[in-house]
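From the thread on structure requests for the teaching lab: each student submitted one protein with a one-line request. Submission from student K.M.:

"Model ABC transporter permease from Spongisporangium articulatum, tokens only."
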Amino acid sequence: MATTTAPAPGATAAGVRNRLRDPAFWADWAALVGLVVLVIVFQSANSTFLTAGNVEAMLISAAILILLTIGQTFVIATGGIDLSVSSMMTFAAVVFGYSFAHGWGLVVSMLLAVVAGTVLGVVNGVLIARGKITDFVVTLGMLSAASGAGLILADGKPTTVINSFLLKFSTRGIGIFGYTFILAVIVAALAHFVLFHTRFGTHTLAAGGSPEAATATGISTARIKIAVYTISGVLCGVAAILLVARVGASEPAANTQYLLNSVAAVVLGGVSLMGGKATIIGPVVGALLLTALVNGLTLLGVSQFYQPLAVGIVVVLAALLTRFQK
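Reply posted by the TA:
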């Protein structure tokens, strides 16, 4: 009967030290390590940071970014990028407000918001996959087109959306976990299952890792491209509903900060910008990190002018770490 020998304590310690010295380790765990460090720093500087009320507010605030980040993750997993997420969300929100203001009802307005985001996502995917236009150009054009369409539909004015269900949905929850955050977590769980436990997820990663090899094995990279941009559009529509519920109005002015933060969260989460390597948990943690960063700086009284600078620095540092990913 064969026997096994336990590793020597010194060998185990040496392995841990070598792992900690490996830049690839920090590249893969950058979001989680960064979040822990931020929590320690901000809690030390301001004891209200980890109070139940503030944590609940951060999680509710992070829900929209988490949804956009998940959609961005699917796109980047194929080696692409979606620069139009903030504008698609804004347009979907305007459609929501327009429908609600014209008496079409809450359910219909919500469905139309999702449909609006879906249609724009499909247009992106078709132009990129079938039109053979680079994703950067297509989504940059959609960023402008969707913003313009939203301004035209809303006549440049915000539309107030007052509804008791939306108010409860955006402000209540279970303990510190708001309903919007719970929804975002459910979507993240579904996305994780799709990406790692379905044929579509396998094909998505394969198309991003090596499009030529994927095509040679019978995978339709064009269909995968259309599908991932459609997913991004759908989640922009869902995020639009959460945005309207949180603000109480549909605002036609696009918030481009969501675009930067969605890409930043994906990079922080260890997803390769070259495609073929992705995770869902990492980008979600990255979205929480960016939300905690802005919240902590606000509690410390740091001017809003410096907050984008802080986010930009974090993104660049995370991008540098991705050079060491294996």
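TA comment: The two ends are 38 Å apart (CA to CA). The chain has a mean pLDDT of 88.
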